[in-house]
Amino acid sequence: MQISQYDNFDMSQEEREDYLIFAIFVAGKTADFSMSVTNKFLSLECGISPFDKIRKMIKKKELAANLRRAKTGNYGISEVCLTALVSSSFANDLKNATIEQLESIPKIGPKTARYFLMHSVRGIQAAALDTHILKWLNAQGYDAPKSTPSAGPKYRVLEKIFLKEAEKRNKTPAEFDLEIWLSYSKSKMPKYHESGVKI
Q1: Would the pTM of this model clear 0.90, i.e. be above it?
Q2: Best label site of 33, 54, 134, 198, fewest CB within 10 Å?
Q3: C-alpha span between 25 and 22 (Å, rounded)
Q4: Does the residue 1 lie in any domain?
């Protein structure tokens, strides 16, 4: 697969499942650690797809133990999250999942939902308000907090500002996000998920 600089809108359902699980695990952790944890967690069960593996873990009553074996952290809420996710009405069609559907799953907040969709669904106008985006917004004179706001009016206001700034520069949200990330990153070399998406 050719790696995109920003995103991959042609992921298979299985790649989307893997990427969403990674997006859930990466909250508050490094990308490298979370990639390793995701791979370890999914290697603990056989199955056609990542969600199929989780369903098998649930059926065998091994989900909680496998989260601990893989050292994912946040074990209780991760178990609730993954159980709700794989049994959701949109689980088998992640390409058409909405922000609202994703946010209805415990542990999937506005940043995680938007991060997943922004890099995997063409045309999504959304902003994953991570610390680098908030820092940039502050540098431009906007009143942005240091950490990601929870779902609600503050998040939506900052998201609209970010999208307007991206539009002014004729960039997609993912392109603008990467540009800002590179301006703050020490490595200057983005890392990629196995699906080809920058993480």
Answers
A1: no
A2: 33
A3: 5
A4: no
